[in-house]
């Protein structure tokens, strides 16, 4: 195939950071979505400045030719009851269904250090320590995936730094212990590289189970500082560990990633999600860099 089944989206976290609202706090919702459209993207995920009034949000997006394609869901299967998780999950499904999205994303935050500013990311990551922990976690995720499937949507779980699903070994177990029709992957090349994995090998392995793709690059000099100076995940982001595909400061092999996607049966969104400090990396400028780079590799 070529890329006729692929659509390109962008994440608002590049403009306003959900975990650190002070990053990009000056950027308005209208500026964010206008610059997304102006950069040439046709879809976006949902940020903290997006209206929860679906009529208001739909009108603002439709004026700019944008479509909601996904939203992060904070699973807390390791720290809250399944009933609490199901309530939050179905409420977000209600919203996404109205907005026309087919994917619900997110990762496990219940025992994660990803949002803790003072916990070194390589020392404080979430863990599933026993078979009972794994069984409870994957059972809950599988049940939520059934709920999404019954509503014509896909649960695309995001492996993420600082969480219990960070490495390929952990991702393997997650996918092996859930049903393939219920639980899919939100593949993210930046998080796999950050975790010490080969993102090309990971995509090659998981593309058949992938329902959503995030593309970002990693600055290797900053990643080395994360190790040497024991940065938290949020400190790493503030210091620029991530950047956009197409930035010469990055190191990920995107031509190989796109070659895998091209040869696969992947249908869905590829989303630029490269959170940086907007005061240091103008989000519109960097969105244009990535969009030009994507066009050069895909023709779209």
Automatic annotation (TrEMBL):
Assigned keywords, A-Z: Lyase
Q: Name one GO molecular function term.
A: myo-inosose-2 dehydratase activity
- Under Enzyme Commission nomenclature, its number is 4.2.1.44
**Species name:** Dyadobacter luticola
The protein's matches in InterPro entries, at most eight in alphabetical order, are given as: IolE/MocC, IolE/XylAMocC-like, Xyl_isomerase-like_sf, Xyl_isomerase-like_TIM-brl
Tell me if Metal-binding is a UniProt keyword of this record: no
Q: Name one Pfam family in it.
A: AP_endonuc_2
Superkingdom, according to UniProt?
A: Bacteria
* Class in the EC hierarchy, top level: lyase
Xylose isomerase-like TIM barrel domain boundaries: 36-282
Name the chain's protein: Myo-inosose-2 dehydratase
